[in-house]
Amino acid sequence: MFCHVCGQKAIIQKITIKTLIQDISSKWLGWDSKFFRTVKFLTINPSGVIKDYIKGNRVSYLGPLGYLFLITALMVLIYEITGVSIQEIIESNSGSIMGNVEVSESQLAVQKMISEFSAKYFRWISMVIIPFTSLSTFLFYRKEKRKYSYLENLVMVVYLTAHTIWVTILTTPITLYFGVVISLLVSSVSFFYFVYGIYSLHDLRGFKGVLKAILTYSFSTVLFILFLGLLYTIYVIYSRVL
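Predicted structure:
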């Protein structure tokens, strides 16, 4: 028997360790749980998840912000357990890119400062670009027959950003040993997944559709870099005034 209001079983069991474990298992770890359903369909059909959420289906999947925070927390937990050093990865990648190029002590100091900053705030760096990517998709597709609002584009970008974190989680331990090669592979996979997500959500198909999706994502990166440049300029001016 079930409650006609909330749908819960009318026979309420006493809370025990067993019932708590069963509750976690069925709602979070079960193959038909919101979590696994969200992971599965964001992998094989990201536009379906995003469109369902925008249309009002908030029951079948985890919400975009909840999914983003959950995956981010999972990434941090895995890093802590495995002892992965983000700063070590960043410095290793920088060294691989620079190769045998000679740099001055001041350049090394700046590189170290950037590595330390990136390692400290790496969890938030990918999130900061979200508003810029949302703005880019809103501007590039504003003339489509089915035009999505800025907030609807934000939903899309948050879902896609959260899901690309899986690539980082699965490949970070390998990156420690293979350096920049794996990092470039991770960046490439994330880029193409994002492009595919943008492409599949909109009407334009074929080569033009793919090209537009690539330009949309690239433009958001340019906006983000310009924003960082503006912040750096303000910082330099402020430092000189002091």
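Summary: DSSP finds ten helices and no strands in the chain.
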